[in-house]
Amino acid sequence: MSALAPVTTTLRKQATKPLYRYSGVRWHDSVRYLTGTTAAGPTVPSGPSIPAPTRTALSRLPWLTLLRSAALTTMMCSPTLLKPSIAAMGLITHPKIPLFNPETNPLLNTLVRHVVYDQFCAGTNEAEVAKSIQSFKTLGYQGVILTFAKEIVLSEEERAAAAANPGQYTQAHRDLVASWRDASLASLRMLQPGDVLAMKMTGAGPIAMDALQARAPMPQVVDDALTALCVEAKQRGARLWFDAEQQSVQHGIDDWALELMRRWNGDGQALVYNTIQAYLKGARAVADRHIAAAAAEGWKLGVKLVRGAYIEHEERSLIHDTKADTDASYNDIADKLISQRLPASAGDAAAFPKASLMLATHNAESAALATATHRARISNGLPTCKLECAQVAGMADELGCELIMNYENTLADQAAANIMAPKPYKCLTWGSVGECMGYLHRRAIENRGAVERTKHMAAALRKELWHRLSFN
After folding, report:
1. For residue 160, what pLDDT band results from cuts at 50, 70 and 90?
2. What confidence score (pLDDT) does residue 4 get?
3. d(C-alpha 219, C-alpha 227), whole Å
4. Quick one: average pLDDT of 324-329?
5. What is the per-residue pLDDT across 401-414, written as a single tens digit (0 to 9) for each?
6. Quick one: which of 154, 142, 342, 114 has its CA closest to 245?
7. How far apart are CA 233 and CA 240, in angstroms?
8. Nearest Cα to 135, choosing from 55, 64, 232?
């Protein structure tokens, strides 16, 4: 048994407790948990104390954002309201008639924009996106992850048709790749050093889709486009990650991501990241494959870890049977990287590879466990990965604001100078209202499967609203 085994056991037990003051635990209690002390005494080697703030974490949210977030999350807690809302969004996402198409119906476009788009999306053009990025960084987020919304989600019939007629491409298909590359380059040019571009490979059209489904090497036109993006990202000090997509193309995406990490992550910096979806039964094996490859070949591994957002489009047998299984998978993969556990498949690899982990989660328990484990290893002088945390725009503001406060208070404490607090990031999606509808529809479906978490969000937002109205 390793020396940290009792510590890890304690951390896992404590991570089941609420992290946030809105759940009955005051902020300074959660900070004591993160720094390793409780009323009963130390649970991990204690780090420097961090003073309790004098304001609530959510107090940094603008009034309009708070009101809209409280209203939408309250609605999402109600199955009576959420079910017809998801159905309506499905009609708009895949419109059969112009009336339901926000690109051709200006009244519908305005309605969707004011009700949901402005809450979850960054804008339709460069000026709007720049304004959104600045607003999030003003709140205290240390960076953003930006993605262009356009993507292709295939039905079973479309997947079968694509498989039956591979390789039949025209200039129009090559133009789709060029259009995707140019939109991605435009997104990159909106970013600052440390920010991230999230790439949806399905947006590149059939040439990419067919190769991904066949697990074929990158077609030259796609390879050239990705190389252009890597060059631009490196010059700007930004990063790239492959976003997760349907399993029909995900194995191919994994192959391409590994290839680009071999090319671009060899200088000790993680320029390219891949996404691992913990709700898949094969997620641990995917993580092990990535770790083993990086260890054997000597490049830095970049991982974005999510639970998953394509449950409506996947074969159910591929997904964990219970939420508890998904949670265990997520926490275990995070711990593999934070605690530097080499998989058996690494063979004779001498050491765990350098790694960067972007913990993309709205789950407070997972964030608490990962943060505490990371801090414990640093306090003990043990190697660990670079850790950052991210939530999507419009969701989990109570978690994001707590992470900001934790980061700021750690930086403010001179005694904590050697502690690497995870930087908080916000994931932003941009594009026209019509282009963003697939993304918005998935967000609604995701919330349908996380009612308890959404209730927690709504309660936190309502409490902050009441706090302001009562002038406390």
Report:
1. low
2. 43
3. 12
4. 95
5. 999 998 988 887 75
6. 154
7. 7
8. 64
Q: Label the pairing between strands 355-360 and 41-42.
A: unpaired
| Token reading at 154 | 């295939």
DSSP 8-state secondary structure symbol assigned to residue 231? H
Strands 272-277 and 196-199: unpaired
Residue 198 CA to residue 382 CA, distance in Å, equals 31
- CB under 8 Å to 241, separation ≥6 — which residues? 145, 196, 197, 198, 199, 272, 273, 274, 275, 302, 304, 358
Please return the burial class of 264, using the count of CB atoms within 10 Å of its CB with bins 0-12, 13-18 and 19+: buried
Provide the β-strand partners of residue 358: 304, 388
Q: How far, in Å, CA of 438 to CA of 309, rounded?
A: 11
- Give the SS3 label for residue 397: helix
Fold classification of 122-432 is TIM Barrel (3.20.20)
User: What are the boundaries of each domain within the chain?
Assistant: 55-121+433-471, 122-432
Q: State the Cα angle at 340 between 336 and 342, rounded to 5°.
A: 80
> Which residues of 164-259 form beta strands (DSSP E)?
196-199, 239-242
- CA dihedral sign of residues 387, 392, 393, 395: negative
Report the distance separating Cα 340 and Cα 161, nearest Å.
43
Which amino acid does the sequence have at 404?
I
DSSP string computed for 263-314: HHSTTS---EEEEEETTBTTHHHHHHHHHHHHHHHT--EEEEEE--S-GGGS
Q: Residue 8: which of 384, 453, 307 has the closest Cα?
A: 384
The closest alpha carbon to 197, from 427, 470, 437, 458, belongs to 427
Instruction: Give the tens place of pLDDT for each residue, 10-26.
Output: 545 444 443 433 333 33
Contact 458, 70 (CB under 8 A): yes
Comparing C-alpha atoms, which of 137, 231, 224, 139 is closest to residue 180? 224
